[in-house]
Amino acid sequence: DAGITQSPRHKVTETGTPVTLRCHQTENHRYMYWYRQDPGHGLRLIHYSYGVKDTDKGEVSDGYSVSRSKTEDFLLTLESATSSQTSVYFCAISGGGGSQETQYFGPGTRLLVL
Amino acid sequence: GNSVTQMEGPVTLSEEAFLTINCTYTATGYPSLFWYVQYPGEGLQLLLKATKADDKGSNKGFEATYRKETTSFHLEKGSVQVSDSAVYFCALSDLTGNQFYFGTGTSLTVIP
């Protein structure tokens, strides 16, 4: 199994509060991704990173920001959480080595915004 | 653009039944194709993949063949088990290998 951890695994917060989710990898992979998973939508890309301090937006980036100050860590921040951000969040990594790359996923963080 | 369409569930089968989950894709060029499986409360795990046309990916009794002419990558298993109950996602990666596109997932329940 790829060495990917996410913290926290579960979080309950209130509307309007900031929330930061952490993804940590031990594989030294170049690419890191944040997805959210919602019923009927499958996986939707929020943001991704292609190197330290290099990030870009995904399909559903509004209301989210990310940072990557080290290869192994990719943070997802909800500046002011809303109920629509209640979801399961998955981090993923890939080596960025070309078209035959595989994406590996962390265990997920379940976030409830009240 | 790139996209993946997979059959909607839920799918319920009896143990030892034959499984097919359909997946078709739209992509520029010849992407790599994947099937991921998600067990309850867990993240997605790679089940199998194929990187070029006519390749067959296989793992744990599951198979899928990369069909360029029909732009399909259907997942099959000859005899399902209760332990195969999970959500299955079809996915593709673009030509750079940096962007991945997922279907909406198909929930499978296998009953004894």
Protein architecture, described:
- The complex is a heterodimer of chains A (114) and B (112).
- By secondary structure, chain A is an all-beta fold.
- Chain A is built from no helices and 11 strands.
- Chain B is mostly beta strands and 112 residues long.
- Helix content of chain B is 0%, strand content 51%.
- Chain B has no helices and 12 strands.
- In chain B, strands 2, 5, 6, 10, 11 and 12 form a 6-stranded mixed β-sheet that branches. Chain B has a 4-stranded antiparallel β-sheet with strand order 3-9-8-7, with no helix packed on it.
- The termini of chain B are far apart.
- The model of chain B has no long low-confidence stretch (mean pLDDT 93).
- The A-B interface holds A 4, 31, 33, 40-43, 45, 48, 50, 90, 92, 94, 96-108 and B 31-32, 34, 36, 42-46, 49, 51, 89, 91, 93-100, 102-105.
Structure summary:
The complex is a heterodimer of chains A (114) and B (112). With 114 residues, chain A is mainly β.
Q: Which descriptors apply to this entry?
A:
heterodimer; A: 114 residues; 7-stranded mixed sheet; 11 strands; 0% helix; B: 112 residues; mainly beta
Strands of chain B, total number: 12
The N- and C-terminal alpha carbons of chain A lie at a distance of 34 Å
Largest beta-sheet details of chain A? 7 strands, mixed
Q: What is the number of strand segments of chain A?
A: 11
Indicate the low-confidence ranges of chain B by residue numbers.
none
Proportion of helical residues of chain A? under 10%
Strand content of chain B: over 45%
SSE-based structural type of chain A: mainly beta
Number of helices of chain A: 0
Low-confidence stretches of chain A: none
The average pLDDT score of chain B comes to 93
Shape of chain A: globular
The biggest beta sheet of chain B reads:
6 strands, mixed
What overall geometry of chain B do the principal axes of the alpha carbons give?
A: globular
Q: Could you tell me the strand content of chain A as a percent range? A: over 45%
Protein chains sharing the most extensive interface: A-B, 26 and 25 residues
Helix content of chain B: under 10%
Mean pLDDT of chain A: 92
